[in-house]
Every structure is written in structure tokens, then in C-alpha cells.
Design goal:
153 residues, mainly beta, six-stranded parallel β-sheet, two-stranded parallel ribbon, 10 strands
């Protein structure tokens, strides 16, 4: 595997961090000094996987995460555990299903998964997203949605 080697100077007090159009892959950047980070944008890169633990230091701070326009096909199950995200953009990737990692985010208000490769929403797929007020799944290839795939209001 090749790892992202480019050095980036980041100030510890930053609240918004954008890595758009940087050809970042895979995600292996440490954010341990980013104690006040509220918004993180990794859109338009070459990310394929979001591994467990890489975003751990953002658990108590980040409310917005932008991962659109990458090549994401996998988000590991514990990648977002205990995060307090309110908005998550996963548009224009290669996700075949709603990642189980999303079930760990209890505060998610807006989820965008437009333009992925979703074909089937199984029973219980989105039940844990009961706090999500806005769910966007446009331009997927959804063929079937099972009963109880979505939370009831």
C-alpha cells in the first residue's frame, strides 16, 4: 500500500479543516492536536476506506464531516463510534450498502448518500438513524426497500 506522505501544517486552534482536491489516499492523517475541530472536509480525493480509529480524536468536537466525491467502498464498523456528528456527506462514492458505522452516530441530523451504489435497503438498515431528520439517497440504484428498513415517525 502507498500511504499519504504529504506534510501539512495545521494549527491546533483550527475549527474547520479542508483537504479538498488533494489526492489523499488512504486516510492515515492524525488529528490528535485538533481539539477544537468542528468541520472536516475530505471531499474530492481518492479515499477508498475509512478505517476504525482514524477519526477517534474528533469524537467530542466534530459536527460536520464531508467525504463526498471519493472512491469509498468501505467504512469500517467502528469508524464513527461515539462521534457527535450532526451532518455527514457521503455523496458520489462506491458504497454498496449503508455502513454499519452510521449506527454508532446517535446525533446525526443530516445524512447524504446520493450517487452511491445502493441497491437494497434491508430490514433495520436505517432504524438506528431515528434522530436523522434529512436523509438523501437520490441517484442510487435502489431496487427494493424491505418493510421496517426506515424509522417510523
Amino acid at each position: 500500500k502507498q500511504w499519504y506522505q504529504r506534510r501539512v501544517a495545521i494549527t491546533a486552534g483550527a475549527s474547520i479543516l479542508e483537504f479538498r482536491f488533494k489526492d489523499v489516499y488512504p486516510l492515515s492523517v492524525s488529528f490528535s492536536q485538533m481539539v477544537k475541530l468542528d468541520s472536516l472536509d475530505f471531499s474530492s480525493n481518492l479515499l477508498t476506506v475509512i478505517p476504525n480509529g482514524v477519526l477517534d480524536c474528533l469524537k467530542t468536537t466534530a459536527s460536520f464531516l464531508e467525504l463526498s466525491k471519493n472512491r469509498l467502498h468501505t467504512i469500517e464498523d467502528e469508524a464513527f463510534v461515539d462521534m457527535r456528528l450532526q451532518t455527514l456527506y457521503l455523496n458520489d462514492n462506491f458504497l454498496l450498502e449503508v455502513p454499519k458505522a452510521l449506527f454508532k452516530v446517535k446525533s446525526l441530523n443530516i445524512l447524504r448518500m446520493n450517487k452511491n451504489l445502493l441497491t437494497y435497503l434491508k430490514r433495520g438498515t436505517l432504524l438506528n438513524l431515528d434522530m436523522t431528520n434529512k436523509l438523501y439517497l437520490e441517484n442510487n440504484k435502489i431496487l427494493a426497500i424491505e418493510d421496517d428498513a426506515l424509522p417510523r415517525s
